[in-house]
Fold this sequence. Notes:
The protein starts with a helix and ends with a helix. The protein has eight helices and seven strands; from the N terminus they run αβαβαααββαβαββα. By secondary structure, it is of the alpha+beta class.
Amino acid sequence: MSYSELVNELKLEGRLIGVTRVDSKDENIDDIFGCVYKAMKKVLEGRSLVLKSGSCSCGGFDHNSGLNDERPSIPGGFGVFLSHGSSQMWTPPGEKFKCSPEIAEAMFDMLPKDVMDGFDAIKFEPYREGMEADVVVAFVNPDQLSAMIVLHGYNKASYDSAMATTVSGCASMLRIPFAEMKKKEPRAVITGTDLAQRHFMEEDLLAISIAGWEFENILQIT
C-alpha cells in the first residue's frame, strides 16, 4: 500500500500530522494560547509548530506532553483539581475526572517518564510522505479509526495493538506514544478523548497516534 493509496482510500488528505522531538536551539519556537489541540487545526492547514517548556499557555501541556515529568503545580493541589475541586478561592473548581485526589495523583505517577530522550522541544508538521517522524497522528472519524486500528494490527497476533486511555489529550497524543515507540511492538494510542479538549475538535472526529516507524510498516502492507 503506497502512501497515496492510504490517503485516498481512507480520505485522510489534510488529516495527518508528523510529531518529532527536537532540540529547541535548532528551531524557531512558537508561543500559543490555550489547548494545543486548538493549534493542531493550523498544523493541518499547513503550518509547522514547535513548542518547548513554557511556550504553551495551558499549564498542563508541559507535564502531560512529556517535556516535564513533575506533577503540574496547581493551587490547592493537582489531585484536588483533577477530582472534586474545592470551595476555597485559591483552588480551581476541579475537572472531576477522578474520584479522589489520591487516585488522580496516582494516575499521573503511573504515566511513562523520561520519554523525551534528551530533546527539549516538540515539532508538529503536516505529515509528508517519507518524513522521519517520531509519531504520526491521524485525525479520523469512527470508520477511519477502525481502518487505522485494523491496519496497525494487521501483522500482529496481539488483540490489544491499540489502546484507549483516561488521561489528558496531551498525554495520549504525545507522552504515551513517545514511550510506546521505543517498544518492539508499540501500541497505537487513541487520543482526542479528553473531555476538556473535545470542544476544540470537530464533534465527529477522534485521533490516533502511531509510532512513526510503525506507520511506515503500514505502508508496506500489500
